[in-house]
Every structure is written in C-alpha cells, then in structure tokens.
Write a sequence for this structure.
C-alpha cells in the first residue's frame, strides 16, 4: 500500500511545476518536530539499506527527498560523500547542520540539480512512490551505469502501527485530499513495475520494521502533527482541534509496560535495483 498526501505529498507527480514548492512548505511547517521527533524512526531501514547497497568511504551517495537529512547523516558516518535534495528549505537547513560537509540542496526530485552519472548510490526513504516514474528516471540519469538504487515505502496495512494516525488524517482532510492520502499501490509488485518502467532492474526486495518511540502522548501528537500528510487536516480543522483528534487516536497505543511512553512499530517495504 501507499500512503501519501496530495498538497504535501512525499511523491508529487503533478504536472504543476510549482507543486513541489507547496509540498516543501507543508513538510517544512514544523521542521524541527519532524526532524527530531519523527525522522529518526526510520533508522533501522536507513542502516539496512545502506548495508545492502555497500555504502562505504568509496561511495558518492545522493538521498532524494532527504527530509531533514537523518539518513544522509548516517551515510556520512559510513564515510560516504553525501548529497541530498528535498523540497523543504526548512528541512534542508537541518540536514546541512547534521552533515556540514554534505551537498544538500532545496529542489524538485523531478528535476535533480546534479550532473549525469555523478553518483554510485541513490536512495529515497519513503520519498518516491507509485506515479513517480519521472523521479526514478532522474535517479537513473544521475547514477553511473554500475550504480545502485535503494527505496523504502510503507509496507503491509496489517503491520502498520501508525494506521490510526493515517485514519485520522483521512477523516479530517478535505475530500480532495482523502483519496490520495491512502491508496493501494506501494506493494512489492507495484514497486517492481515502477522500477522496470523507469529503466531499472530489480536486485533485491524485502521488509523491515521501524518503530516510533515517544516519551508521552503530547510528544507523539507534536511529532505526528508535523508530518506532511497532517497539513490538509490542520488547514481544515485547525491545529489544536487536529491535535485533540490525534490524542484520541493514539491514546490506545500507549505502552502497556506502565510507562507513559508510546512504541509504535510499522513495516516498510524496500527494494534495491541497478540501471537496466
Ligand atoms: C515522507 S517524507 C520523507 C523524508 C525522509 N526521506 C525520511 O526518511 O524521513 C517526504 C519528503 O519528500 C519531500 N518532497 C515531496 N515532494 C518533493 C519533490 N517533488 N521534490 C523533492 N522533495 C519532495 C518532502 O519535503 C519530505 O521531506
């Protein structure tokens, strides 16, 4: 399955050339919360994919739709020469602080501002979805002929701990955003088709669990309200009202150990590929 959101999409394939700018404004509206309270949840997926892709000091890596650069920072710690691109200037500011030596740019993944064949590895963690073939064509262009691609995406619905969050988003977003917020599509078969149609040959695929951990419900709500898909719902009902909705939705997920915390595990799918 694919989880995305139109105006704030992680994978916006609209023909409107300005649409990526709107996506960046949405994702950057609460940049610090996204960067520090949310993005680190993907670390198991980041580390696993970098391992599969042999990211090392010899690697020139670009992370596409890199958000606040948490993954890029991990790649830099492996010694890679790191570039990244995201639509949000506020998130890129944090990415630059995390990896001062990196080449981190604000821009559109459908028109990467990088030269042909300039990277050994391209990754995108929940940044490229079904319908974004053109972003993959760009990824292929900037990879060397021997380059490696790695993508993650939301996995099975039955293994998605954050489903109550996405249900709340759908219920409170304007109708124009609902159908795009949650749709079937990010299955391994769909991703394999997406790769093939954009000039890649699938190498490996699998799943990996990621876990959001928050010390209390209010922190969880701050984090979730900062995610791009929340933006249309916040615009529709207001920030405080949407936070109340999230509090109700997430309350049943409190840790059963007796602490105030929440540990919410979801599945990512992942694929690796090479230029065909
Ligand atoms: C789900 S977040 C993923 C961020 C990061 N990769 C991570 O692992 O947390 C999606 C990201 O895609 C970015 N984005 C959306 N549309 C974009 C576009 N057309 N070009 C570049 N980035 C885009 C958003 O700004 C956001 O940071």
């Amino acid at each position: 399955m694919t989880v995305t959101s139109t105006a704030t999409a992680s994978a916006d394939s609209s023909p409107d050339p300005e649409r990526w700018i709107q996506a960046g404004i949405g994702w950057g509206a609460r940049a610090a919360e996204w960067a520090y309270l949310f993005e680190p949840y993907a670390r198991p997926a980041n580390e696993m994919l970098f391992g599969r892709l042999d990211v090392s000091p010899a690697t020139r890596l670009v992370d596409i739709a890199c958000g606040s650069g948490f993954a890029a920072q991990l790649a830099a710690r492996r010694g890679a020469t790191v570039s990244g691109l995201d639509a949000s200037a506020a998130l890129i500011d944090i990415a630059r602080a995390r990896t001062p030596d990196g080449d981190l740019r604000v821009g559109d993944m459908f028109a990467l501002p990088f030269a042909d064949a300039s990277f050994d590895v391209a990754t995108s963690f929940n940044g490229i979805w079904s319908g974004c073939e053109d972003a993959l064509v760009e990824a292929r262009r900037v990879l060397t002929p021997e380059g490696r691609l790695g993508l993650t995406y939301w996995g099975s619905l039955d293994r998605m701990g954050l489903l109550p969050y996405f249900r709340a988003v759908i219920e409170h977003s304007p109708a124009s955003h609902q159908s795009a917020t949650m749709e079937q599509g990010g299955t391994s078969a769909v991703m394999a088709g997406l790769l093939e149609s954009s000039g890649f040959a699938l190498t490996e695929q699998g799943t990996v669990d990621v876990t959001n951990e928050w010390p209390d419900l209010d922190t969880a709500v701050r984090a979730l309200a900062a995610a791009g898909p929340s933006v249309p719902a916040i615009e529709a009902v207001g920030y405080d009202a949407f936070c109340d909705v999230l509090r109700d939705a997430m309350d049943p997920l409190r840790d059963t150990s007796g602490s105030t915390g929440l540990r919410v595990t979801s599945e990512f799918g992942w694929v690796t590929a090479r230029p065909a």
Q: What stands out?
A: The pocket of S-adenosylmethionine is lined by residues 9-10, 12, 20, 23-24, 27, 39, 42, 65-67, 71, 85-88, 91, 108-110, 125-127, 228 (CB under 6 Å). The domain at 2-157+185-213+266-275 is CATH 3.40.50.150 (Rossmann fold).
